[in-house]
Automatic annotation (TrEMBL):
The chain crosses the membrane at residues 7-29, 35-60, 72-94, 114-131, 151-179, 185-205, 217-236. Keywords: Cell membrane, Membrane, Transmembrane, Transmembrane helix. It is found in: Cell membrane; Membrane. The keyword Membrane applies. One of its GO terms (cellular component) is plasma membrane. It comes from Spirosoma endophyticum. This is Probable membrane transporter protein. InterPro entries: TM_pro_TauE-like, TSUP/Inactive_protease-like. It comes from the Bacteria. Belongs to the 4-toluene sulfonate uptake permease (TSUP) (TC 2.A.102) family.
Amino acid sequence: MSAQELFGYASAIVVGLVIGLAGGGGSILTVPIFIYIFHIPTVLATTYSLFVVGSTSLVGSINHILRKRVDLTVTAVFALPSFISVYLSRRFLVPALPDPIFQFEQFVLPKSNAILYFFAIVMIIAARAMIRSDRPEEGEASDGRPRYGSLALDGLAVGLLTGTIGAGGGFLIVPMLVLMAGLPIQRAVATSVLIIAVNSFVGFLGDIQHTDLNWNFILPFTGLSIAGIFIGMYLARFVAPDRLKKGFGWFVLVVASYMILRELL
């Protein structure tokens, strides 16, 4: 095993560590790790990301459920349309995307590059949210009445995002649960982890019917990520979440900038 591969497997622990500390954000790291360290093709990298993030988040969500931090009613309303959107996008949309996506004379935009650009843009949006540490205190549901219709529509949109780029979308889900379901921020984070877990697994199920997977690679990587989440949940007792998210946000911004520059040059 090369030094680069050892570094890649060590990064798996960091993925779980981030999810355990911040309640999300691991998927922002998995796709770049798979592409740039292990040289896995882009679409397959998003498939692997769904499995790793789904498995790791599931472990975290079990801890939150046992501590009664998860709102199961809100989870069902948000997650059901999201599950449908994730599955359909992985099963039909991503395989149906043309390759190249766009071509005009000498300019060609391959499918893999288009997905990477989209992923990098999502990373920048996520980084901005984490650096600003926005925490909405109230919104449409400030009167205590969740807007279930809006939650369901947002679930469809997040599912499409998860299915397309293999990201859990926690940075989008948490504000929606605060604004439209009226959940306190801690409860929104816990509920988001469960939604991310099931979303990711549903998207993965949409892939396994037409994708050959290297289980000898993905299972050890996932195991290290799960080990990382236990470390993260322990360290979360001592680390200020806002400071952590801001630092991680700057790191994500640097990685996204690197991805864009590498693909352009």
